[in-house]
Amino acid sequence: MLVGQAAPSLSEVAYRRLEEAIVTLSLRPGAVLTEAQMIDLVGVGRTPVREALIRLAQQGMVEILPRKGVVVAGINAIDIMAALDAREVLERLIASDAAKRASPRERIAIIEAAKAMRAAAEIGDAGAYMRLDKELDAVVAEAARSPYATRAVEPLQALIRRAWYHFERQDDLVPAAAHHVAFAQAVAKADPTAAMGASDALMLHLRKGLLATLSRD
Predict the structure, then answer these.
(1) How far apart, in Å, are the Cα atoms of 156 and each of 87, 88, 131, 137, 161?
(2) Any idea where the HTH gntR-type domain is (predicted)?
(3) Which of 125, 120, 184, 133 is nearest to 162 (CA)?
């Protein structure tokens, strides 16, 4: 949690835990779970879990089955590409805003997160890499101070991370990390144009990689 932020509500805790389980495929696509199972999984009560599930359903992560529970959404190419299309536009805005508005401390944190991603990639630690990817997104979002764009892009980022786990893009760690470092450097240099260009290059890299993987499956 970033300095100055309030502790998350129980609904937010339930949402984060369920989203993490879905994104990392601990809850597999197509899995059917009862409300009781999800309460046990996240460790909070019925109302926060229900609120979290409504939010996840709105984001396309689950489908609520009345009186039965939920089914975890499947993963398909059309959804992935549509998410990338929308994410690309939002990421450009966030990149530009972060380059313009980040504090000196935030610029350092952005560089450090990207370099940590590169280090994780170089030793093949996919779990650490993906955790750091999420951390970098959070630091950039905080620096951008663009809450509407941030709220809109977060579920799209989660959908793409889920696709990464699903297609096991281990071979892409080092090349993708290089794009993240270039992006972080552009933001840290307070260059909005370069930051948008680096964001576009990263999104293009993600798109090409996922398309190549989809064509093999």
Answers:
(1) 6, 10, 16, 12, 9
(2) 8-75
(3) 133
The tokens describing 69, both together, are 């529970």
- pLDDT tens digits in sequence order for the chain, 217 residues long: 444 556 789 999 999 999 999 999 999 999 999 999 999 999 999 999 999 999 999 999 999 998 888 999 999 888 899 999 999 999 999 999 999 999 999 999 999 999 999 999 999 999 899 999 999 999 999 999 999 999 999 999 999 999 988 887 778 899 999 999 999 999 999 999 999 999 999 999 999 988 888 776 5
CATH number of 10-72: 1.10.10.10
